[in-house]
Amino acid sequence: MKTVIEKVTYNQKICNQEKIKAAGKIIQEGGLVAFPTETVYGLGADALNPQASAKIYEAKGRPSDNPLIIHISEMKALDKIAVHVSQQALKMAEHFWPGPLTMIFEKSELVPLETTGGLKTVAVRMPSHPAALALIKEAGGFIAAPSANTSGRPSPTSAEHVAEDMNGRISMILDGGAVGIGIESTIVDFTEEIPMILRPGYITPDMIKEVIGDIKIDPGLIKENSDVHPKAPGMKYRHYAPRAELILISGAQDNVQEKINNLAREAELSGKTAGVIGTDESFRYYSYGIVKSIGTRYDEDTIARNLYGILREFDQQNVDIIYSESFTTSGMGQAIMNRLLKAAGQRMIEI
Ligand code: AMP
Ligand code: MG
Question: Residue 68 Cα, ligand 2 centroid: separation in angstroms?
Fold first, then answer.
């Protein structure tokens, strides 16, 4: 299959209508189109067409029990795919949609089990990216889309990343440039009595508490509970991972830098190519391996935006082992560390 890459430009609202129309038609006919959202690039198919959803699993090599998120572009679409939507959830939608929030509800009859990985619940998000919203409208209103990467690899934050993984496997990539946020949406489960965060993201627990009060965090996400399964099926896999081995180092900054220097030196002495993830503040202290800065430690938005791109760059440079600093910032730090720990297969050296 030849993959067509189309650049889309946009101002406040409308994008290159002809290209969006062509992309919408591919989806309506049961094909696959990758498209930009404000979080990461998505791999879209008609959410109400079971054969189309099945193609997403095939293109990504995604385990079939890992459900897809349905993307909508207007509130009235929610009632068609979800039942028992609570007042709290509507309040959340009012505050955070369109935006990087996914909510889980009981699914309606309309939604095929192929799209929900066999579950009776459905994940729904209204993205804010103008190209995504325009595409959803053109495609008939319901696009099932996971991240547009090969299953397990870092999520794509540019059209080039999508092409690396999906070239020849899908009909079209809409290239909207680099994404704004860089990590996936916050997932909140509203089928629980007290809503529960299943995946941390740009929208933090504190932001949610301000809108609806009490909220729980899936106990399966807390590192100490390694025997508790996370409720979102996708959160149990090693994920977001580079091909190289990744190890995180946490502790007092001076000790972390010394430890990483020692580890990178040992790796290089044993004939491996080492990579180091530091920050604008620290990277000049590292003397061994390929050193990259993820951005300034004081700007978590930048750290989130650069995270997956850095992991992919190390893959292109055929690095064998990557040592990374930890980033436990107050807001999105939880989301950033969640992705890094999964990419590292939970390997972290605490000093
Ligand atoms: P991705 O779009 O690749 O970021 O993956 C979607 C994430 O949403 C995965 O972690 C899924 O397990 C999760 N998800 C989707 N639908 C549901 C659902 N009905 N219940 C729980 N988690 C879900
Ligand atoms: Mg994903």
Answer: 9
Please tell me the distance from the alpha carbon of residue 342 to that of residue 319, in angstroms, as a whole number.
Answer: 19
Distance (Å) from CA 144 to ligand 1 centroid: 11
Backbone angles phi, psi at 158, to 5 degrees: -150, 165
Instruction: For residue 119, give the amino acid letter.
Output: L
Query: Max Cα separation, the chain?
Result: 61
* Ligand 1 atom closest to 102 (CA): 8
- Pair of tokens at residue 6: 């189309």
pLDDT tens-digit readout, 75-121: 999 999 999 999 999 999 999 999 999 999 999 999 999 999 999 99
**pLDDT beyond 90 at 15:** no
| Cis, peptide link before residue 154, omega less than 30° from 0 | no
Q: For 176, how many CA atoms within 13 A lie in the half-sphere containing its CB?
A: 29
Ligand 1 contact, 127 CB (< 6 A)? no
18-62 pLDDT, tens digit each:
999 999 999 999 999 999 999 999 999 999 999 999 999 999 999
Buried-state track 186-215, b at ≥16 Cβ within 10 A, e below 16 = bbbbbbeeebbbbbbbbbbbeebeeebeeb
Length of the chain: 351
Ligand 1 atom at shortest distance from the alpha carbon of 231? 21
- Interval between CA 59 and ligand 2 midpoint (Å): 13
Burial class (CB in 10 A: 0-12, 13-18, 19+), 166: buried
For residue 119, which atom of ligand 1 is closest to its CA? 19
Name the phi and psi angles at 212, rounded to 5.
-125, 5
